Amino acid sequence: MFTTTPSSPDAARPRLPQAVPGEVIALQLPGFGRVAGVVAGAGPPLLLLHSVNAAASAAEVRTLHQRFSASRTVLSIDLPGYGLSDRPDVAYTPRLMTDALLTCTAWLRQRCGGAPVDALALSLSCEYLARAAAERPADYRSLALVSPTGFMGRKVWRAAPGTTREVPGLLAALRGPGWGGALFRGLTRPGVIRYFLQRTWGGKAIDETLWQYDLLTSRQPGAEHAPLHFLSAGLFSADIQTLYAQLAMPVWMSHGVRGDFTDYRGSHIVRQRPNWQFSVYPTGALPQFEVPARFHADMQAFLDGGRVAAV
């Protein structure tokens, strides 16, 4: 059912080193190509999903992958256009990202005897995880959403199913003759990547290992294609609040109080739902790096079916 590429001396290796330890797999996504991930450990299935930006990859879930592979079968994937996955010049959409996620979920369930998957996503990828879980609820036991998009301000995002927030004409302008690659190269200069990570952290003390991997992954062939669609807003879902409201499995939402990602006023639409619980950390948008012991303990409590401290 699935085509995989094992991590072995005889297998064709990507130019980019893997971000987390384990066996590299590659799943074929029809109409796209290879979607890659790294699997490690044994036990109940846990799927980890990085955010979406100019230099995203599974490196963003490194601490979680290392911690939970001691007791679970952990699959950390690279979305289409990122990390070890293929990076062709195609249309990158929420549908493509969700289909990749569903394909990886099916593979992980098969590896774990059909058990439903616990899944964690960061930032914009929370939208793809919510869509996947709304479409295939039996595939997911629980969802952990870290700094999810779709809750900023009081804007209501309940447009027609499957629609996006793409700004008409912006993608063509971003790509457009000869400067698309130059724009991306400017956004991924070492100092610029550091600047955006500092805005994510809300301070200068970023994770240096993540910064170094961001430099590597953003210099791979085709690295500009998915980020330019991201900059056009074509990877954001205009129906996301409808999807969040449909989720019936346990959901844990967490975020920080520093940096660019602190406005979650729109979360009032799910605040009173009994299957949702919430935590706020004294960190930036990636609390798993800043308070790993606390975040990992809270994640374990959630996976065990308990309540997580709100503050």
List keywords for this structure.
311 residues; alpha/beta; Rossmann fold; 8-stranded mixed β-sheet; 11 helices; 8 strands
- How many angstroms does the end-to-end distance come to? 44 Å
CATH topology: Rossmann fold
Number of domains: 1
DSSP, total strands: 8
What class would the helix/strand composition place it in?
alpha/beta
Largest sheet: 8 strands, mixed
CATH architecture: 3-Layer(aba) Sandwich
Describe the global form.
Answer: globular
Strands in their spatial order, largest beta sheet: 1-2-4-3-5-6-7-8
Short characterization:
With 311 residues, this protein is an alpha/beta fold.
Please provide a written account of the structure:
By secondary structure, the protein is an alpha/beta fold. The protein has a single domain (23-303), classed as Rossmann fold, CATH 3.40.50. 33% of the residues lie in helices and 15% in strands. It has eleven helices and eight strands. The protein has an eight-stranded mixed sheet, with helices on both faces. Helix 3 (125-135) crosses helix 9. The protein is globular.
